[in-house]
Amino acid sequence: MANPYQLAELIAARLESRNIGIPILYAVDLPSLVENSQIAPAINIVPAGIQFVSSAGTVGVRESVRVVACTRFVNQLSGQGARQLAGPYLTAATVALLNYQPSGYSPIEFETPPIPNYIGGFGYYPLQFAATYEIS
Question: pLDDT tens digits, residue range 84-125?
């Protein structure tokens, strides 16, 4: 049976098994990701919360996870270079998670992520995914 905040590890394992070519790291939340010294390029896995859902007498937990591409492209205020570097990694992560159903969860669904950030030459480009598990 799935437990709260397990989805991040399952998504990270899935991405690692697909050999995206960059490190898969963990962060507590988005602000901690930005404040820490960064490895770039990298994919950072960030738990994004849970919510309880119910329908037809069934109670479940919907868990959200952010997959954040961190890239570095110095001396460019627009962040265009960092975005261009992040694009292939975000595509690879999306392809790896398409039609993926982690053990104990519903199939992965896409959610609207928070806006990207570009700070001090580092670009942070998030995608957000969710899956639900039933509580028995």
Answer: 999 999 999 999 999 999 999 999 999 999 999 888 888 999
Contact call for residues 63 and 53 (beta carbons, < 8 A) = no
The H or E element containing residue 15 is helix 7-17
pTM: 0.90
82 contacts 72 by C-beta, under 8 angstroms: yes
Contact call for residues 25 and 44 (beta carbons, < 8 A): yes
Q: How far apart are CA 9 and CA 103, in angstroms?
A: 12
The answer on pLDDT for 133 being more than 90 is: yes
* Interval 47-75: pLDDT, tens: 999 999 988 888 999 999 999 999 988 76
d(C-alpha 65, C-alpha 11), whole Å: 8
In the Cβ-directed half-sphere of 121, how many Cα atoms lie within 13 Å?
Answer: 9
| Calculated CA dihedral for residues 27, 33, 36, 41, nearest 10 degrees | 90
Please tell me whether the peptide bond between 41 and the residue prior to it is cis, using omega within 30 degrees of 0: yes
Give the span between the Cα atoms of 67 and 48, in whole angstroms.
Answer: 10
